[in-house]
């Protein structure tokens, strides 16, 4: 009589990925002795991904360390991202390494199991038999999920709860996810509440909090996620959800702190590093943003998420930090920015547009280093080449405008931004970026200084210290003379002084000077209605 496992193993296809030939051959021998017939062996990531692209694979046994290039985590990440593995396929991470960094990084992409080297026949057969039995029992459900037939998958899950009690945890977790995918949040939360009423499980708590966030119950979700992280500090998905909840509460500083903590615990998650970089930039914390962009670029070297945008973002951050200073540290940052752009050009050499975008940023970096003559020479060549591109891509156009401002070509910069607004102004995010550059066409350091003065001026105005407010807004306008909000803030202070004292001495001239700076303010600008209102008020005062 044949071994019952033989038929189970024999019906499946296997892929073994390991850079040591002896181990690959040994694994094939053990699998065949279990009854497997269809076993493919590859040494590295590229042939592994290619094989999965053109062949259905039921079981992948992949070593974590594969020498230079992609590792097992990168393979799993790419297979999941490209949907090259069906839900019923099994991915087993094989490793002799047990470092925290490796385990945390690999866990982010949820392999079905880990196998620790050395592996013997008995261990392999026992682990695989259990996984294959579960796979076969749940195959009808996973097939419907792969087909995105979620209602049928839900029906099968509910039917299986009484028939397959040993897989109840998997079935309940899948039910919660399916109800959430369908937008049936009330049923999703019932599933999670039922699980949690019997046992405190992290995945159920995370699922419930996803539902709470989707229902805009941010306070409840944030409090619950904080407790979950405190009791299970390695459950990384909870950090991402907590950051999301805090962002929705407009507590971006706290959200950044959460992601910083998460990246110290699991530093190899590229998308989390990218999110941290973007959040730190929004919070004007350029040192943290720069380091997070560095990590994003580093992790991207072998990742499916590798993108030239990450290099450009890092170059921007380094440029911002180095601009205007000629000390040794700033020069090192500027040099790093140029190196990052050169690396991007090598890795994405097929794109001429990227090469030109790189030159635009390099031109601004040279200006920031005090190499104005060199920057102006570069600008002539860039302008000629950009004149041939229609329409100009938004991000390159914004970078070009920044570079024009940096080299005191203010009129050209404003004309370019007006063109960009015509092309992209219907997109709210694009309009915001264009407007922001129109308002604050100065270096990062100057921008932060002006924003600080603006906050101080507003506080002084609200407390009734009008003279202090006037002086503070005036200082800010020395940095950014054409800033709409600052000009309008100062006009508002001057009008208030007139209302309090009754004096109109020099009011008209000063206010007119500031209101005239905004003659070309586009109607779409967020300050335009306020501009019109104050303009009307000024006319009424001077009649």
From TrEMBL:
List every position bearing 4-aspartylphosphate.
63
Query: Can the keyword Phosphoprotein be found in this entry's annotation?
Result: yes
TM region positions: none
User: What are the ranges of the TPR repeats?
Assistant: 450-483
Keyword vocabulary terms for this entry: Phosphoprotein, TPR repeat
Q: Which domain of life is it from?
A: Bacteria
UniProt entry tagged with the keyword Phosphoprotein: yes
InterPro entries per the record? Answer: CheY-like_superfamily (IPR011006), Sig_transdc_resp-reg_receiver (IPR001789), ST_Response_Regulator (IPR052048), TPR-like_helical_dom_sf (IPR011990), TPR_rpt (IPR019734)
Entries under SMART domains matching the protein: REC, TPR
Residues of the Response regulatory domain: 13-132
Name-wise, this protein is: Response regulator
């Amino acid at each position: 009589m044949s071994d019952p496992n033989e038929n189970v193993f024999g019906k499946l296809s296997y892929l073994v990925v390991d850079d040591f030939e002896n181990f690959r051959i040994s694994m094939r021998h053990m699998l065949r002795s279990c009854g497997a017939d269809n076993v493919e062996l590859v040494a590295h990531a590229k042939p592994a991904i290619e094989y999965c692209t053109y062949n259905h694979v039921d079981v992948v046994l992949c070593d974590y360390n594969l020498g230079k290039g992609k590792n097992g985590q990168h393979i799993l990440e790419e297979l999941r991202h490209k949907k090259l593995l069906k839900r019923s396929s099994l991915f087993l991470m094989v490793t002799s390494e047990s470092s925290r960094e490796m385990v945390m990084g690999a866990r982010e992409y949820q392999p079905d199991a880990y196998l620790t080297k050395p592996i013997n026949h008995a261990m392999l057969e026992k682990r695989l038999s259990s996984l294959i039995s579960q796979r076969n029992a749940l195959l009808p459900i996973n097939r419907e999920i792969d087909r995105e037939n979620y209602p049928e998958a839900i029906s099968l899950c509910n039917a299986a709860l009484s028939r397959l009690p040993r897989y109840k945890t998997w079935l309940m977790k899948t039910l919660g996810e399916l109800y959430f995918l369908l937008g049936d949040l009330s049923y999703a939360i019932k599933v999670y509440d039922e699980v949690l009423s019997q046992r405190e499980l992290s995945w159920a708590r995370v699922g419930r909090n996803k539902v709470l966030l989707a229902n805009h119950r941010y306070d409840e979700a944030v409090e619950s996620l904080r407790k979950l992280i405190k009791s299970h500090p390695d459950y990384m998905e909870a950090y991402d959800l907590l950051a999301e909840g805090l962002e929705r509460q407009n507590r971006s500083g706290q959200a950044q702190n959460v992601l910083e903590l998460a990246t110290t615990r699991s530093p190899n998650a590229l998308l989390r590093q990218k999110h941290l970089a973007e959040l730190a930039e929004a919070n004007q914390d350029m040192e943290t943003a720069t380091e997070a962009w560095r990590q994003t670029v580093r992790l991207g070297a072998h990742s499916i998420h590798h993108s030239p945008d990450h290099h450009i973002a890092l170059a921007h951050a380094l440029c911002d930090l180095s601009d205007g200073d000629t000390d040794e540290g700033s020069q090192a940052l500027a040099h790093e920015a140029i190196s990052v752009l050169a690396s991007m050009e090598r890795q994405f050499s097929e794109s001429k547009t990227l090469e030109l975008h790189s030159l635009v940023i390099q031109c601004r970096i040279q200006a920031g280093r005090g190499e104005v003559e060199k920057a102006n020479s570069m600008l002539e060549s860039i302008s000629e080449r950009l004149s041939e591109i229609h329409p100009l891509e938004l991000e390159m156009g914004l970078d070009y405008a920044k570079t024009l401002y940096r080299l005191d070509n203010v009129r050209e910069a404003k004309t370019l931004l007006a063109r960009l607004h015509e092309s992209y102004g219907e997109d709210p995010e694009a309009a915001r970026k264009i407007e922001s550059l129109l308002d604050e066409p100065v270096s990062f350091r100057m921008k932060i200084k002006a924003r600080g003065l603006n906050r101080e001026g507003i506080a002084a105005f609200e407390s009734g210290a009008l003279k202090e407010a006037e002086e503070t807004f005036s200082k800010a306008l020395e940095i950014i003379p054409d800033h709409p909000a600052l000009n309008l803030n100062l006009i508002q202070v001057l009008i208030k002084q007139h209302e309090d004292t009754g004096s109109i001495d020099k009011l008209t001239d000063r206010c007119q000077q500031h209101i005239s700076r905004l003659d070309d303010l586009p109607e779409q600008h967020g300050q335009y209605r306020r501009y019109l209102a104050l303009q009307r008020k000024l006319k009424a005062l001077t009649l």
